[in-house]
Amino acid sequence: MTDELEEIRRQKLDELRTRGESGSTNESESGDPSEPITVDGKAELSDTTTDHDVVLVDFYADWCGPCQMLEPVVETVAAETATTVAKIDVDANQELAAEYGVRGVPTLLLFADGEPVERLVGMQDESQLRAVIEKYA
Q1: pLDDT at 65
Q2: For residue 27, what pLDDT is reported?
Q3: Could you read off the pLDDT of 71-92 as tens digits, one per residue?
Q4: Residue 113: alpha-carbon gap to chain centroid
Q5: The CATH number of 35-134 is which of 3.40.30.10, 2.160.10.10, 3.30.365.10, 3.30.1330.10?
Q6: Does the chain have fewer CB atoms within 10 Å around its N or its C terminus?
Q7: Would you please indicate which residues are annotated as catalytic (active-site) residues?
Q8: Mean pLDDT of all residues in 90-113
């Protein structure tokens, strides 16, 4: 069963890459998505942080009030900056959240050149996020 899931994930990832190469995704000229992308699992996170120079990862939960308040801010950052925004549901990705030391939501990790460089916990305003991103963009 695990092998079947891995094969399905690989197929989906290949489909997404093919779709991205054909230009049918909603990406800016720099190749960064203009909307947050949903990441499910360690492999997808690794691919995302490898494929993009600067990635803001939003560890969130659907039931989290501050996460819901942060969502429009994260969407604006995705649309208006050169960073890729990835969203990870901590309930669906508990092991991944634990691996990155996420103990509360929302937790934002900023990756630059594939490595985590900043951690922000709790509600953040847009100017704070932009300032942190600009240090690495």
Answers
A1: 96
A2: 41
A3: 999 999 999 998 999 999 999 9
A4: 14
A5: 3.40.30.10
A6: N
A7: 64, 67
A8: 97
